[in-house]
Amino acid sequence: MTISNDVKRPESQALASAVEALAARFGNRLITSQAVREQHAHTTTWLPTQPPDAVVMAQETADIQDVVRICAKHRVPVIAFGTGTSLEGQVNAPAGGICVDLRDMNRILEVHAEDLDCVIQPGVTRKALNEHLRDQGLFFPIDPGADASLGGMTATRASGTNAVRYGTMRENVLALKVVRGDGEIITTGTRAKKSAAGYDLTHLFVGAEGTLGIISELTIRLRGIPETIAAAACSFETVRGACQATILAIQTGIPLARIELLNAEQVRACNAYSKLTLPETPLLLLEFHGSEVEVAEQSRNFGEIAKECGGGDFTWTTKPEDRTKLWQARHDAYWSVKALRPGAGVVATDVCVPISRLADCVTETEDDLKRLNLLSPIVGHVGDGNFHCSLVCDVDNKEEMARGEEFMHRLVERAQSMGGTCTGEHGIGQGKQKYLKAELGPEAIDAMRALKQALDPQNIFNPGKIVPVG
Asked: How far is 216 from 177, CA to CA, in rounded Å?
């Protein structure tokens, strides 16, 4: 797959001067080896790898500021890097430049248990944060599957399996500190739970994919660990029945914490990989949070709805080991698909539609896969209409790749025609730039360009992502 670059590499002398200045400032924390540079451009999609010219290992906010100041002086691109789990080429360096690795900025600065918030550096991962919070009876609920950094999750507006109850990163970030194009710090908000003070700068940077500045500090919401957690599974004869059960559960006010759809192909893959014995038909995996009485009532009410919609046996458990086994199988969905065809590539993509159209969208997508003779198991965050296709392709087979690209293009067009979006949580990056105009209109694209020009007039922050500058 080819991608268009709307950015130019800096002049060789400018780049050399920037690297020399960075070497003087950072010493052995500036790395130029080919292996490390390629590691910082890896992508888990089929976009080609585009490594930076050098990597700086940042340890504090002042490091980010100095990198930005040096790069701004020489007009050299700067790309922020968390753990590299993004899926649309967000960490690629199409014009080269300097990658700022934030993994060492991993301190939890403050925890305010009474206020249910904390202040952290961008390199803190979600698992590390929850491990730190556990003894205080708190947790951070956003779970994209991978152990991503919170800075990266903010930059890509991540969500995941808990979004139906707890929202996405958009709803869970209170304030940010961001390094702007001249190396100075923007503070976007406070720890207050709400504010009407000026423009909502916090949410301007949430989802900006590092194109407007680099996040150096985050203030995020926390939640109390539920008294009781129950996991459940229910098989259905059809995808439509599973989606209808989801809609009815939401309409009747059952406070679902998680509800995930696996189509029959994905269930087969999970059974083989995770050694499960689930019926190989469409499946809903659920989780309920609350008191013991509340969880039992939620489970019972959903079981009745599932039966009305053609669901089979509805089983639920509060045993931690059983819950972990069930959800680990869901989180291992990518690896289970990869095991279906050893040596082939797996391209993960997502769309999101109003949940009333979810069954139509998934069913038509399955029909399209059959027509194109492609293998792509489907998993979905059905509570918010978001689903993922894991397309298995031989990346060296041009004819198969062409069918794969046709499938993904048709998938996006289908979602958009149903009032949905080209991406519910993977982001735009490089891979989905071409779909923005059809989804939002040229006026919105012009507004995005104007924001980019105002905040990053030299186009040094992660150039070539989201909206082409030209």
From this structure: 6
As a three-state string, the secondary structure of 79-96 is EEECCCCCCCCCCCCCCC
The answer to whether the Cα torsion of 29, 34, 39, 42 is positive or negative is positive
Q: Is 1 exposed, middle or buried (0-12, 13-18, 19+ CB in 10 A)?
A: middle
Match 């060492």 to its residue by tokens: 104
pTM of the predicted structure, to 2 decimals: 0.93
pLDDT, tens digit, 9 for 90 and up, residues 270-289: 999 999 999 999 999 999 99
Q: Which of 434, 439, 440 is nearest to 465 (CA)?
A: 434
346, containing H or E segment: strand 345-352
Strands 54-57 and 98-101: parallel
Q: What is the pLDDT of residue 405?
A: 94
Task: Provide the token pair at 331.
Answer: 């989180």
Query: How many Å separate Cα 318 from the centre of its chain?
Result: 28
253 torsion bin: left (phi>0), alpha (psi -120 to 50), beta (else): left
